[in-house]
Amino acid sequence: MNFALIISVLLILIIIWLVLDFNLGRRKHTSLVSRTETAILHGNFEIFTHGRELFIDYFHAIRDAKKHVHVLFYIVKDDAVSREFFSLLKEKALAGVEVRLLVDPVGSWKVTKAAVEELREAGVEFSFSNPIRPPYLFYSSQVRNHRKITIIDGMIGYLGGFNIGKEYIDEDPVLSPWRDYHLKITGESVNFLQSEFFIDWQEATSKGLQGNPDYFPVRPQGVIRHQFIPTAAGHLEEFFIRLMGQADQSIIIGSPYFIPSKKLFGALLAALQRGIDITVIVPYTADHLLVQEASYRYLRRLIKEGAAVYQYKNGFYHAKTIVIDDKICDIGTANFDKRSLFLNKEINCYIYDPAFIERLKGIINKDIGDSVLLSLEVLNKRNISRSVKECIAGAISYFL
Fold first, then answer.
1. Which of 30, 173, 199, 226 could bond 351 through an S-S bridge, CB–CB 3.0 to 4.6 Å?
2. Are residues 120 and 258 in the same domain?
3. Does residue 32 sit within a domain?
4. For the segment 305-344, what is each residue's pLDDT rounded down to a tens digit?
5. Among 195, 222, 249, where does a domain finish?
6. Which one is catalytic: 50, 148, 226, 345?
7. Phi, psi of 276 (to 5 degrees)
8. Is the pTM of this model over 0.90?
9. Is-catalytic flag, 318?
């Protein structure tokens, strides 16, 4: 009896600590982060939807680098693709190119100490972003840098959903082919990606880099109107709600994880009530435990209210996009879930170019063609195991 009492008290104390740690950590984090969005910028864009094509182009651009290569990824694995990536960075550093690599310690937990030492010995400046640190250990363990950006010679930028690992080039038998959207960017807006990398780099290393004009070369302006939205500590919710409110005819959402906040889901329901057509694309096969079950409560309501929900079946759908009518599209690193809304550092690109939006819609229509329409009949079919998982997922949906 005494042992059971001790265990109960310890569990209560742990729960109290977790709640206090998380809420105090979030309060402090929110007070330190300001809302940011760029003015309208002009650049040129290429979009990649398959990893093999992206990484052929990406590795080629790194090989051609003359001055500096700055890289930030959420996930870098320990596999053949990752080793090729590391070898390329070491090769450029040994050739005299300035190379900096910043990765998230949780997303990139498979990066070994030996690999880091080899990178540093070759001259690559390496750091982990967003370390878990006191006094808010639990909260800081949940705040991840989910951005994926690369800047080469201050002239070329990459931004999107792909990370570094074999699954991203269709070498995972369960999740292949991998479907994602990633941008290659040139023009004046590369400056902003460079600045954002430096902000994250300084936070991780306490080393400022903004003063060197060599990082911000003069370049052609470009023709596609767009802006960047970097977010952290809850600001993404506000931007997504604002997007929903701008729709006059249609909203298309593509995301591997569909777990919106109460306010954001309310904005979707309000859009349906004013006659907006809503289309949602999610994966048929999940890549993480409980994320699919967490989405069902929202998808049921949307379908009941008239939205069309598609499950992508031609591999795994990891794209992150929102399209509002024919006037705005969003491509970036953020998922349509609470973790991206409230916990992760993200960066998204809003594009206002009709020709690019039309091209993206063609890609999305192809993805819809590779999907099946989800019905209430399927979601409401009696399944005790799924019901239990939905209850568990609902209780922890903030952290999925």
1. 226
2. no
3. no
4. 999 999 999 999 999 999 999 999 999 999 999 999 999 9
5. 222
6. 148
7. -80, 135
8. yes
9. yes
Tell me, yes or no, if 320 is annotated catalytic. Answer: yes
> What's the pLDDT tens digit per position in 230-269?
999 889 999 999 999 999 999 999 999 999 999 999 999 9
> How many angstroms separate the CA atoms of 33 and 210, rounded?
19
207 is catalytic: no
Question: Residue by residue, what is the 3-state secondary structure of 284-349?
Answer: CCCCCCCHHHHHHHHHHHHHHCCCEEEEECCCEECCCEEEECCCEEEEECCCEEHHHHHHCEEEEE
| Distance between CA atoms of residues 189 and 195, nearest Å | 10
The verdict on whether 70 is a catalytic residue reads no
Q: Which domain holds residue 129?
A: 41-222
Looking at the structure of the chain, the number of domains it has is 2
Final residue in a domain of this structure, among 169, 200, 222: 222
Alpha helices in the chain (DSSP H): 2-32, 51-63, 80-94, 113-121, 137-142, 190-205, 235-245, 262-273, 291-304, 338, 354-369, 376-380, 384-395
148 is catalytic: yes
Specify the 3-state DSSP secondary structure of 115. Answer: helix
Domain identity same for 193 and 240:
no
Q: Please tell me whether residues 244 and 338 are part of one structural domain.
A: yes
Query: Considering Cα of 13, then 18, then 23, then 27, what sign does the dihedral take?
Result: positive
In this structure, are 197 and 103 located in the same domain?
Answer: yes
Q: Catalytic: which of 226, 318, 338, 345?
A: 318
pLDDT in tens, 186-234: 999 999 999 999 999 999 998 877 667 778 887 788 899 999 999 998 8
The strand pairing partners of 72, in sequence order, are 102, 149
